[in-house]
Amino acid sequence: MRRILIADDEILVRVGLRALLDWKAEGYAIVGEAASGEEALRLLPELEPDLVLTDLVMGPGDGFALIRGARALSSTVGLVVLSCRNDFDAVREAMRLGADDYVFKLTMKGEEILEVLARVAAK
Q1: Fewer CB under 10 Å: which end of the chain, C or N?
Q2: In 3D, which of 88, 82, 90, 84 has the Cα closest to residue 112?
Q3: Left, alpha or beta for 43 (phi > 0: left; psi -120 to 50: alpha)?
Q4: What is the CB neighbour count within 10 angstroms for residue 11?
Q5: What value, to the nearest 5°, has the Cα angle with vertex 95 and ends 93 and 98?
Q6: pTM beyond 0.70
């Protein structure tokens, strides 16, 4: 079972992600949630997720800081950016910092999330 940490400052996004799929049936467990990048960084060593789904714009500690910090802690954790910003420069910066993939929040579907997670987990 692959372990997922969700980092997003919007509670409706976190609740929506939990409800989007039957995670257990798909081989995943959501082991934690964080409302900021700082909180997610504090949880990483304790929860030891395989994958982190993160927003870019949140505070304190945005998704960019989370990606940098997560990469400093682990080279193997999968990092997927979830953002409602269709901003190429922000996505490029996230990828340069170590994000593995990107999903546009406003149009994401369960199947798309599963495809991205499978691709990232296979790395």
Answers
A1: C
A2: 82
A3: alpha
A4: 10
A5: 115
A6: yes
